[in-house]
Design a protein that fits this description.
heterodimer, A: mainly beta, six-stranded mixed β-sheet, three-stranded antiparallel β-sheet, B: mainly beta, seven-stranded mixed β-sheet, four-stranded antiparallel β-sheet, globular
């Protein structure tokens, strides 16, 4: 169960858009439409932002969007706001009853 | 309000054992699969284990298989993680997490397990 690959950091200015990638294999990201994304502020539990690649739970702003192409999923944060500064993690179903997470991306709002 | 409250964390020596508990409320426990996910200090998230409603579908990450045992008591709305043969690398905050639509939609606040001599 290798971790999914995310860039360690990303940044953008308020109002800009930032995209975070998440690369796996055909056994996880590429094999299932069960990619999810989480936001974690320091000292807090993660919060679900995106599920099933593109869907947003109620209460998540539409500034957050997800997509997938082949073995790579992406999270786009549009109209960056100061409160978006956090760590972001992707996750994918990996078959059976297993799950795998990405290593996390620290998003800085400049 | 959905709540998951972990307990049982603490300091334990390498090779020791510890049992984590998670009390849930605010939703019908018997309708959901639940998981344990951990996060080492300053590190990323790692899925640990999963148990379905009937406790007949269980799986573990390779890193804990054979050492950790997940269980649930539907009558008590509780999830457990029995950890044995603990290693320094098991040091982490352990989260109790609800499974929903192939994602993890509600997380507890976490309980810290420190394995050190």
């Amino acid at each position: 169960q290798s971790a999914l690959t995310q860039p360690p950091s990303a940044s953008g200015s308020p109002g800009q858009s930032v995209t975070i990638s998440c690369t796996g294999t055909s056994s996880d990201v590429g094999g299932y439409n069960f990619v999810s994304w989480y936001q974690q502020h320091p000292g807090k539990a993660p919060r679900l932002l995106i599920y099933e690649v593109t869907k947003r739970p109620s209460g998540v702003p539409d500034r957050f969007s997800g997509s997938k192409s082949g073995n790579t999923a992406s999270l786009t944060v549009s109209g960056l706001q100061a409160e978006d500064e956090a760590d972001y993690y992707c996750s994918s179903f990996a078959g059976g009853r297993k799950w795998v997470f990405g290593g996390g991306t620290k998003l800085t709002v400049l | 309000e959905v709540q998951l409250v972990e307990s049982g964390g603490g300091l334990v020596q390498p090779g020791g054992s510890l049992r984590l508990s998670c009390a849930v409320s605010g939703f019908t426990f018997t309708s959901y699969t639940v998981n344990w996910v951990r996060q080492a200090p300053g590190k990323g998230l790692e899925w640990v284990s999963h148990v379905n409603v009937g406790s007949d579908l269980i799986d573990y990450a390779d890193s804990v298989r054979g050492r950790f045992t997940i269980s649930r008591d539907n009558a008590k709305n509780s999830l457990y993680l029995q950890m044995s043969s603990l290693r320094v690398e098991d040091t982490a905050v352990y989260y109790c997490v609800r499974d929903w639509s192939w994602a993890f939609d509600h997380w507890g606040q976490g309980t810290l397990v420190t394995v050190s001599s």
